[in-house]
Structures are given as C-alpha cells and as structure tokens.
Automatic annotation (TrEMBL):
Chemical reaction(s) catalysed: tRNA(Trp) + L-tryptophan + ATP = L-tryptophyl-tRNA(Trp) + AMP + diphosphate + H(+)
GO molecular function annotation: ATP binding; tryptophan-tRNA ligase activity
PANTHER family referenced in this protein's UniProt entry, alphabetically: TRYPTOPHAN--TRNA LIGASE, MITOCHONDRIAL
Upper lineage: Bacteria, Pseudomonadati, Pseudomonadota, Alphaproteobacteria, Hyphomicrobiales
Its EC number(s): 6.1.1.2
Protein name, UniProt field: Tryptophan--tRNA ligase
Domain of life of the organism encoding this protein: Bacteria
Organism the protein comes from: Pseudoxanthobacter soli DSM 19599
Residues that span the membrane, as ranges: none
Length: 342
C-alpha cells in the first residue's frame, strides 16, 4: 500500500523554496496516493523557540497546507506533537541508529555551527525523529527538497537495520521479510534547491538574516516585485539553452524559479526568453510569482483569522494519524519483546 508522508517545520518565514521544493509538490500527489502532511513542531524545538511564536507558526504552516490545496477530507494534515507515537518510535530509532551515522549528517554540522558542545541533543538526534515520522506510517514516498536527501538515506538505513536485526522475530510474528518499507524520496522538478536571491551559492532559508534573500509566502505583491528587482544577477543576457546557465548560479536560480512557477522545464523557459536582459525578464518573473503566490497568501490570511477552525482541522488530523501510527508502534514493541499496553 503506497503512502506519501512529508513534514514542514513551524519556524516562521515559510518561503518560495519551501513552496516550490515541497508544498506545491504535495498537491498533485493527492490524486495518486493517500497523503499525510505534518507540522513538525518537535523538530522546531531542537533550536530555541519563542512559545508564542511557535503556536502562531504551527497554525501558519497548517494554513499554508490548506491554502495550497491539501484536501483534509481525503488526506491527513496534523501536528506532530499531538500524536505521541512519533516520539515513542524516535526513541526506539535512537537505539537502532549508530553514532557514526548521525555524525555524518551535514545539516547538523551546518545548524550547530562552531559551538557543537552547546547544540541540543535533540538537534543531533533530529534525523531519528524524522525517520520515525515517516516509518510510523510505513510511508513509501516522501516528497522533499534536495536538502533532505541525506536524512532520507538515513531513514532507509534505520528501516533496513531494524528489519535485519529482528528479521526472525518479524517473520515469526507474520510480518513477512520486512516490517518497514524502504521509503523513496521524491525530489523532482526544476526547483528542488531554490537559492538565496542575494547569493546564488546559498540556499534560500528561513533563518537568513536578510529578508531580501527570500520571498516569503505572506509577502505582498509590491514586496515580491521589489525583492525580485533587487535580486542579484550577472551582467549577461539570458541564454537560450540550459548549458548557458553553467557557472551562473543567480541566473540559473531565477530561471529555475520561473520554470517551477510556470510548470515548465528550464529548456522551455529559455527557448521563449533566451536573449532577454534580466531587466526585462525580472518583471515577468515578478508578475508570475505574484499571480501564483498571492491567492495562497490571501487564503492563509483568511484562515489565520479563524484559529479555532485550524485547531479543529489539526485535532481531527491527529485522531486519524494516531489511528494509523498507534498500531505500528504496538507492533514495534511486540517485535522488540516489550509487553503490550492495556
Ligand atoms: P523544512 O521545514 O526545513 O522545509 C520544508 C520543506 O521545504 C524544503 N525546502 C526547500 N526546497 C527547495 N529549496 C529550498 N531553498 C528549500 N528550503 C526548504 C525542504 O527540503 C522540505 O521538504 N526535516 C524537514 C522536516 C521534516 C520532514 C519529516 C520532511 C521532519 N520530518 C519527514 C519529510 C518527512 C525540514 O526541516 O524541512
């Protein structure tokens, strides 16, 4: 039974990278798969969070899921901390994953910076919780941006080690020759790694101190146009083929954004706009971004005015998610030899 799972952290500043690399890709998957989309607040607290802002950000990400077009009648949108199974399975995975595996995670190295001694244990163990998010639903497909690829590989390593360590027990209990599936990352399209508008070698990120580095989902039309006008470019014109973007990270990024927003390949964008100066291309890109993003921003604003409704969606989602995750955790405990909860 194929199943899609993905998550977004409620850490403020949802941006164009989150939208093009993840959120916008979640929507069409609803036609083919049962989908579960999570607001991962337990991940957000691996770095310092203001409690009032965390509450607002949980509702904001939920609003973004709804505004982007996730159908919560047929699929599940919920908040991680409201389903205890995630934290329970994460502990088990802390005992499956090896220190050496986690030591290789590049995101920890980036986020912890120089002062590793002072990083939270949660930040180090972050990927085992992410593996639990996915595997507690036995999800088979995980749509994410390029930056999550290494975490998905670790998830597969954890699934494989668990299946292997307990293979005899898993078979004896009638689960066949593997309890967890090997989840497949879905990293697709022209914008799997959207870069900063100020520096084409840096990822667009929620935590960049410059707001001009990113387009936030909630930016108004003028702000979007201004940020695109100010975006760094090089002095050359647009090439007419993708190989002309090599060694030009800023140009490549803007073309990728245009392609993703218009649902085209970069080839098609360049076939149409090749030869233009950036001063002519940027207004077209700004108009396209406003056309695609402003309906989402408007709907998010409308939804956020009704937190009671959002909390209701999450409560319903948590109940349906727990109905899937609970039995999986119960089976894991049985596989491990623990006694059942009454
Ligand atoms: P997070 O909250 O940082 O980002 C959410 C999604 O947005 C993608 N993304 C990008 N895509 C393209 N260009 C960018 N500049 C860019 N920045 C972010 C991310 O790849 C992600 O898909 N660890 C995850 C959250 C998570 C999760 C999970 C994901 C927790 N559990 C289980 C999938 C499955 C994260 O920090 O995403």
């Amino acid at each position: 039974e194929p199943r899609v799972f993905s998550g977004i952290q409620p850490t403020g500043n949802l941006h164009l990278g989150n939208y093009l690399g993840a959120l916008s890709r979640f929507v069409p998957l609803q036609r083919e798969y049962n989908c579960i989309y999570c607001v991962v607040d337990l991940h957000a607290i691996t770095v310092a969070q203001d409690p009032v802002e965390l509450t607002a950000a949980i509702r904001e990400v939920t609003a973004a899921y709804l505004a982007a077009g996730i159908d919560v009648k047929r699929h599940i949108v919920f908040n991680q901390s409201q389903v205890p199974a995630h934290a329970e399975l994460a502990w088990v995975f802390n005992c499956v994953a090896r220190m050496g595996w986690l030591n290789r995670m590049t995101q920890f190295k980036e986020k912890a910076g120089k002062d590793k001694e002072n990083a939270s244990v949660g930040l180090f163990a972050y990927p085992t919780l992410m593996a639990a998010d996915i595997l507690v639903y036995r999800a088979t497909h995980v749509p994410v941006g390029e930056d999550q690829k290494q975490h998905l590989e670790l998830t597969r390593d954890i699934a494989a080690k668990f299946n292997n360590d307990f293979s005899a027990r898993i078979a004896a209990l009638g689960h066949g020759d593997g309890f967890f599936p090997m989840p497949e990352p879905l990293i697709q399209g022209p914008a799997t790694r959207v870069m900063s508008l100020r520096d084409g070698t840096k990822k667009m990120s929620k935590s960049d101190p410059s707001d001009y580095s990113r387009i936030n989902l909630v930016d108004d039309a003028e702000t979007i146009a201004l940020k695109i006008r100010k975006a760094k470019t090089d002095p050359m014109d647009l090439p007419s083929e993708p190989k002309g973007l090599e060694g030009r990270p800023e140009a490549d990024n803007l073309v990728g954004i245009y392609a993703a927003l218009s649902g085209q390949a970069k080839e098609a964008v360049l076939a149409e706009h090749g030869g233009k100066q950036f001063s002519a291309f940027k207004p077209l890109l700004a108009d396209l971004a406003v056309e695609k993003l402003s309906p989402i921003a408007d709907e998010m604003r409308r939804l956020k005015a009704d937190p009671g409704y959002i909390d209701g969606v999450l409560a319903d989602g948590a109940e349906r998610a727990a109905a899937i995750a609970g039995p999986v955790v119960a089976s894991v405990k049985e596989i491990l030899g623990m006694l059942a909860t009454r």
